């Protein structure tokens, strides 16, 4: 996939990716539009169709598959090391032609993952794409990672509690219905 690249993204974009709420990270792939290209059948089957239209017909890459690719290429992704602020610029330099929206979605998924947040919670140093040490992790970023994890665990506990309560209510309603049916059957025989 070959796209033209426009001005560089800012460190604020990277911080925003890292600050993504847990539910945003889980839905980042669904929320971000996939890099697809509308190609009409006439354009691909025309005898004079150029190489660009043939390339556009190739299947679009997902954010998760891009993340897997980045993990295979770069140790900080594979090892869930805290990423340097502005890592997106390093990725753009190393992987020419990468789709920016897809990259941002992949970064959102990665930086919102439980494993990455746990690493950020205890980290002291951020890492560049080549694995070299970068800037220090601030107390604010460690605190944010810890709060995000705490909130995620709290929400998950609430969700499980609500599921258990709903299941218990359903079982109680089912038992009540069975008792009513038994009583109904008992009194209908006597009358």
Strand % is under 5%
Succession of helices and strands: HHHHHHHHHEEH
Label the overall shape.
Answer: elongated
Question: Within the CATH hierarchy, at the fold level, what is the topology?
Answer: Fertility Inhibition Protein O, Chain: A, Domain 1
Low-confidence stretches: 1-59
Strand arrangement within the widest β-sheet reads 1-2
What's the average pLDDT?
74
CATH-assigned homologous superfamily: ProQ/FinO domain
The total of helices stands at: 10
Q: Quickly give the CATH architecture.
A: Orthogonal Bundle
Q: Give a count of the beta strands, DSSP E runs of length 2 or more.
A: 2
CATH class: Mainly Alpha
Please give a quick description of this structure.
The protein has one domain (11-157): Fertility Inhibition Protein O, Chain: A, Domain 1, CATH 1.10.1710.10. It contains ten helices and two strands, in the order H-H-H-H-H-H-H-H-H-E-E-H.
Question: Could you walk me through the main structural features you see in this protein, from its secondary elements to its overall organization?
Answer:
It is a single chain. The chain is mostly helical and 191 residues long. The longest helix is centred in the last third of the chain and has 52 residues, at 139-190. The model is unreliable at 1-59 (pLDDT under 50). It has a single domain (11-157), classed as ProQ/FinO domain (Fertility Inhibition Protein O, Chain: A, Domain 1). It has 10 helices and 2 strands; from the N terminus they run αααααααααββα. Strand 1 and strand 2 form a beta hairpin. The protein has helices at 11-18, 22-31, 41-45, 51-56, 63-73, 75-78, 87-94, 100-111, 114-122, 139-190; strands at 125-127, 133-136. A two-stranded antiparallel sheet has the order 1-2.
């Amino acid at each position: 996939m070959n796209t033209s690249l426009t001005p560089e993204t800012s460190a604020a974009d990277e911080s925003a990716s890292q600050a993504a709420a847990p539910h945003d990270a889980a839905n980042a792939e669904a929320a971000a539009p996939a890099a697809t290209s509308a190609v009409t059948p006439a354009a691909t089957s025309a005898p004079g169709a150029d190489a660009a239209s043939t390339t556009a017909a190739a299947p679009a890459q997902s954010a998760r598959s891009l993340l897997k690719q980045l993990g295979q290429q770069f140790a900080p992704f594979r090892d869930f090391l805290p990423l340097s602020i502005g890592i997106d610029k390093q990725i753009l330099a190393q992987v020419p032609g990468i789709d920016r929206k897809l990259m941002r979605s992949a970064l959102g998924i990665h930086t919102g993952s439980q494993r990455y947040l746990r690493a950020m919670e205890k980290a002291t140093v951020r890492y560049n794409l080549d694995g070299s040490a970068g800037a220090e992790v601030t107390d604010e970023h460690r605190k944010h990672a810890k709060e995000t994890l705490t909130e995620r665990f709290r929400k998950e506990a609430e969700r499980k509690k609500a599921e258990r309560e709903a299941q218990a209510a359903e079982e109680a309603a089912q038992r009540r219905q069975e008792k009513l049916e038994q009583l109904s059957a008992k009194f209908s025989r006597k009358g």
